[in-house]
Amino acid sequence: MSTDFQSAREALGARLNELRAGAGLNGKDFAERLGWQPSKVSRLQNGRQTATPEDLEAWAAAVGSPDVAAELQARLRGLESHQRHWRRQLAAGHGPVQDRLVVEYRRTSTVRGYEASVIPGLFQTPDYARHLLVGNAELMRSPRDTDTAVAARMRRQEVLYEAGRLFRVLVWEGALHALVCPRDVMAGQLDRLVGLIGMSTVEFGIVPLGAPMSLTPKHGFWIFDEERVVVETINTELSFDSADDLALYGRAWDGLNEAAVYGAQAHRIIARARHVIAQS
């Protein structure tokens, strides 16, 4: 079973569990209400069994929220998509996508990432994330579930504080000046980046404008445990796991890293960007 499929199934299970708990029912009582075996409720909640459309309709009715069935059905349709086309993934809004990412990051120990035009989700403040998610929902014409999506994105950041993990992240300096949000929000986001410098689980580097480079920075990409590369385009999320692709993106990250600065030098670049924003 693919990692993508299983992660999405576990995220759906977590949502089912949330709905059941919100209705004030334990697993046994809930199973009796549905006329199911308790083991089926457990399997669905823990992502060990794929729900059917009928299961989801029954679940929504049993928790007293039949209107939530449409959201659950959209999540199920997303499970069936291995292409990870954004239009299909966002059928139920950004929340399910963010829930899936929470699961993926929790099962990952080491990440190497690069972003050219945006502050990575792992490092975003709630206000910065909100503006990005609203803008993306408008672009994709997807359901507006901004509060849910922001909360899930913040939950993903909990991995930054767990021992035994390492996040080696590079950002192109231009991303520090991209005003995808109001200036005060961007200033707060830059302050957040300063706070990451020196964390034991984070190696945060900035590729400065004007730095000598062996290759040009293009799109962002993320390497998970040296086993899988994820690349986001405007309409699709691509995943690669072949040895050749892993080696290629690994070399690209290494080349960008050679041009990056860390520590006090990175702090100075952030301070310069913050000064420009404050003076504008």
Question: How would you characterize the overall build of this protein?
Answer:
The protein has twelve helices and six strands. By secondary structure, the chain is an alpha/beta fold. It has two domains: 1-82, 434 Repressor (Amino-terminal Domain) (Orthogonal Bundle); 107-279, Endonuclease, Chain A (2-Layer Sandwich), CATH 3.30.870. Strands 3-2-1-4-5-6 form a six-stranded mixed sheet. A hairpin with a 3-residue loop joins strand 4 (221-224) and strand 5 (228-232). The longest helix has 20 residues, at 3-22. The radius of gyration is 21 Å and the shape is elongated.
Q: Report the CATH C-level class of the largest domain.
A: Alpha Beta
Helix content: 40-55%
Name the structural class.
alpha/beta
Identify the CATH architecture of the largest domain: 2-Layer Sandwich
Order of helices and strands: HHHHHHHEHHEHEEEEHH
CATH topology of the largest domain: Endonuclease, Chain A
CA-based gyration radius: 21 Å
pLDDT average, as an integer? 90
Number of strands: 6
- Give me the number of helical elements: 12
**Strands of the largest sheet, in order across it?**
3-2-1-4-5-6
> What count of structural domains?
2
Distance between the termini: 52 Å
Largest sheet: 6 strands, mixed
The coarse silhouette is elongated
Low-confidence spans: pLDDT under 50, at least 5 residues? none
Proportion of beta-strand residues? 5-15%
Topology, element by element:
Blueprint: H1 3-22, H2 27-34, H3 38-45, H4 53-62, H5 69-79, H6 86-89, H7 94-106, E1 110-115, H8 126-140, H9 146-156, E2 166-172, H10 183-196, E3 202-207, E4 221-224, E5 228-232, E6 237-240, H11 243-259, H12 263-279
Parallel strand pairs: 1-2, 2-3
Antiparallel strand pairs: 1-4, 4-5, 5-6
